[in-house]
Amino acid sequence: MTTKLVVAVLFGGRSSEHSISCATARGVLQAIDTDRYDVLPIGITKDGAFTLASANPDDYVLRPGQLPEVEDNGTRIIWPESAGSSELWVSGDGADRSLGNVDVVFPILHGPFGEDGTIQGMLELFGLPYVGSGVLASSLGMDKHFTKTVLQAAGIAVAPWRTIKRYDWHKRPQAIRAMAEQMSLPVFIKPARAGSSVGVGKVSNWDEFAAAMDVAFLEDDHVLIEAGIVGREVECAVLQGMPGQPARASVAGEIVVSGREFYDFEAKYLGADGIDLVCPAALSADELSELQRLSIRAFEAIDGAGLARVDFFLTEHGFVLNEINTMPGFTPISMFPRCWQETGVSYPELIDELIQVALAHHAED
After folding, report:
1. pLDDT for 231-256, tens place per residue?
2. pTM of this prediction?
């Protein structure tokens, strides 16, 4: 009988995307092959406490007006005492007890304090294998300003942008608005380090500009003013290969916006009307080939590992990269698993491959 691998699934966290992380964890908990893996669910509360959480997917259902949350049940995860150990312990539910050795960690975290290299750095310190990108790629992928800077240097087209610090906005708002008005409407206002469209605003009239900036600054201390791009919104999923093998890209998905201003939080996660996710997208063979090439190029440019979803606009002049997401959502209506399902990789197979690739690359290090 083959011994099952122990996978610690990390979810929740301190960011504004806490509930999205819980919903993503639900998808993984439902789909992971329990004949091959034992799951150790570790929930991170909104205050940052690591708890031994429920493994029941039904505890993390995402519904309008009822966003799932990691409850503080009083337990605390005790991480390994050194990089020479992979044993986890739990306290708070009686006497301290061992949870056994963990083979790999699956950090299903979105936003700051999880997707931005911080958790990845912690796992590196403990010497634990984990799914997904390392510290550098996670940090780059989280910060839209530095993502654009690196990708532009790699020869990939990105939307024109200006980055504004909170201090400068408070000091000279009129000058910043005047600078922004050099761009054509609409413009998008985006927190540099938030995802799931949290804090993002579309400005179609300059009278809306100040309010959109204030909302974005609630999420981060630097904000992007980004030129609106006219084009089809297409996405491509990327998977890292085994050691010595190249990364590969999926078929394309397309976001068709019909009754909303843009692909916002409600449309992404709550099934709101006005958005259709089309997969596979209707692209020519040459267009798909170029999209896949650019997606892998972007993945490699930030030194990505494991997985990513790369989002583009297809304009009359070609592809313009919108952003790269190093821990894309795994909810039932998310594009990343759907793109791979249409490419021939099922949801359980996808999770299995991510775990096996993480273990193989860790063994090489």
Report:
1. 999 999 999 999 999 999 999 999 98
2. 0.91
Q: How far apart are CA 138 and CA 44, in angstroms?
A: 19
Task: Tell me if residue 101 is catalytic.
Answer: no
Catalytic residue among 16, 323, 338, 347: 323
Sign of the torsion formed by the C-alpha atoms of 327, 331, 332 and 335: negative
Residue 325 bears catalytic tag: yes
- Is 91 among the catalytic positions? no
Residue with token string 């024109």:
160
352 close to 131: Cβ distance less than 8 angstroms: no
Handedness of CA 27, 31, 33, 38 (dihedral sign): positive
Active-site residue (options: 103, 141, 329, 353): 329
Catalytic residue among 14, 193, 232, 309: 309
| Given the residues 14, 16, 17, 263, the one annotated as active site | 17
3-state secondary structure at position 64 = coil
pLDDT digits (tens, 9 = 90+) for 69-125: 999 999 999 999 999 999 999 998 778 999 999 999 999 999 889 999 999 999 999
Catalytic annotation present for 269? yes
Neighbours of 58 (CB within 10 A): 10
In this structure, the dihedral spanned by the alpha carbons of residues 73, 77, 78 and 79, taken in order and rounded to 10 degrees, is -160
309 is an active site residue: yes
Catalytic residue, candidates 60, 130, 263, 269:
269
44, 114 in Cβ contact below 8 A? Answer: yes
Residue 232 annotated to the active site: no
DSSP line for 15-30: STTHHHHHHHHHHHHH
| 349 in catalytic set | no
Catalytic, 323? Answer yes
Selection from 117, 177, 169, 124 nearest residue 143 by Cα = 117
